[in-house]
Specification:
single chain; mainly alpha
Length: 427
């Protein structure tokens, strides 16, 4: 079989990027503040009341992530992503009908969290890992960069929609867009497995080995994986990373209050940080195909530590900009790392379930980070000591990454199960 002039796997990347760009994660991250401000003003809600909706959404979606693996394995990336996009559209339509009731507001966000988890990277990671092997890192990075693009486009479009049509109509427009634009594009572009189309990962030719529908779907089951040392090392590392990254973001205004930076300047700095996330997604994805992935994870931690150390000083505007860019680059690697490491250490058979558990660990840490950091700031009377503590904490995931070793050469090598005391005595 001759090598493809254009490998169809890149269509899968494009379709995944479109789905991710307008998934619930960027829409929530970039549009929630605008929507909540308008609704709070109209209905007389205060900030804590509105913030509860964000907590409910994040909590529900965090709990749903580990459950996504089962329907993904049963239905495939394409079908599950489409169903999730349509569910997200339903949730947005329900939210547009809220009429001054906080209970309705909370229920709508709980529904969105429940139905829309599959609109994010977790749905597409399985398809991409099956379509790509040598170029898996850059493929994941390009697809995940859709989240940064969505984070840039959503607030601009949302502001215009709210200003011209009001927030209920703006939500309905977004719901219709999800249903009649995003879902069909994902259905057209995303395919589950190259073997079904007589292709190999990366478009490679392998005439000596027959291609069957499950040829690329290899590795142990999730039950065996969760009993391995490697799984728990990665889960703990990602939990610490989630706690660390989210400790900074929500508290950035309070961290920089002594730097004399106006909100207008800070907004521009945060925009630069958002753009750097895009470069982080692509940059780290490229590195994953060239450097041992745990070392790439350590690079992400080093960038985060540099950012935190700059914030811990008395930075100028220029240094704050450097710090924000380092922070954006560092968090840009997180979405690439989780599915990539899951597939390299455990194979592709259970990659959706394992990625879901890694997301659960990451966002579980993320729910602790902002509150814990704020409490430490109150205890120490400022951000300097908590930031230095945060830098020191990065030793934990760095050590865990460095202890992983080489990728397993075969499915049997992936099952380095945590030894029991009885087994240890009999050796």
């Amino acid at each position: 079989m001759a090598k493809q002039t254009f490998f169809p796997g890149w269509k899968v990347v494009a379709g995944s990027g479109i789905g991710i760009a307008f998934g619930s994660a960027p829409v929530f991250a970039s549009g929630f503040a605008l929507l909540a401000a308008v609704m709070a003003h109209q209905f007389g809600w205060n900030q804590p009341q509105v913030a509860k909706a964000a907590t409910i959404y994040l909590l529900v979606q965090t709990l749903v992530y580990p459950l996504c693996g089962w329907p993904l394995d049963r239905w495939g990336s394409r079908r599950f992503a489409i169903l999730s996009i349509l569910g997200f559209a339903v949730g947005l339509a329900v939210l547009s009908q809220v009429d001054g009731s906080l209970v309705q507001f909370y229920i709508a966000f709980a529904l969105i969290g429940l139905l829309s988890a599959g609109t994010n990277v977790v749905s597409y990671a399985r398809a991409i890992t099956l379509w790509f092997n040598r170029k898996r890192g850059i493929a994941l990075g390009l697809a995940a960069s859709g989240q940064a693009i969505g984070a840039f486009l959503v607030p601009v479009l949302a502001q215009r929609g709210i200003a011209h049509y009001g927030w209920p109509t703006a939500l309905l427009i977004l719901a219709v867009f999800e249903a009649i634009v995003c879902a069909p594009l994902v259905a057209l572009l995303v395919k589950d497995d190259p073997a079904r189309y007589g292709l190999q990962p990366d478009g490679d030719a392998n005439p000596a080995q027959p291609i069957v529908a499950t040829a690329n779907d290899t590795g142990p089951g999730v039950g065996a994986i969760v009993r391995t040392v490697t799984f728990w090392k990665l889960a703990i590392a990602f939990a610490v990373m989630g706690m660390s990254f989210y400790a900074i973001g929500p508290n950035i205004v309070y961290i920089l209050k002594t730097a004399g930076i106006s909100l207008a300047v800070l907004a521009k700095i945060l925009a630069a940080s958002g753009i750097s996330v895009l470069f982080g997604r692509i940059g780290f994805g490229t590195l994953l195909d060239r450097i041992h992935a745990p070392l790439v994870g350590v690079c992400s931690l080093i960038l985060f530590a540099i950012s935190s150390l700059i914030y811990a000083g008395t930075p100028s505007v220029t240094l704050v900009l450097v710090s924000a860019v380092c922070y954006g680059l560092s968090i840009g690697g997180e979405t690439d790392l989780m599915p990539y490491l899951a597939s390299r250490y455990f194979g592709t058979h259970a990659v959706s379930k394992i990625f879901g558990w890694f997301l659960f660990a990451f966002f579980l840490g993320a729910t602790v980070g902002p509150v814990a950091f704020a409490q430490l700031m109150a205890t120490f009377g400022g951000a300097k000591t908590p930031l230095i503590m945060l830098v020191a904490l990065q030793i934990v995931p760095a050590a865990l990454f460095l202890s992983l070793g080489r990728y397993p050469a075969s499915p049997a090598d992936r099952l380095q199960v945590v030894p029991s005391p009885v087994a240890k005595r009999t050796v």
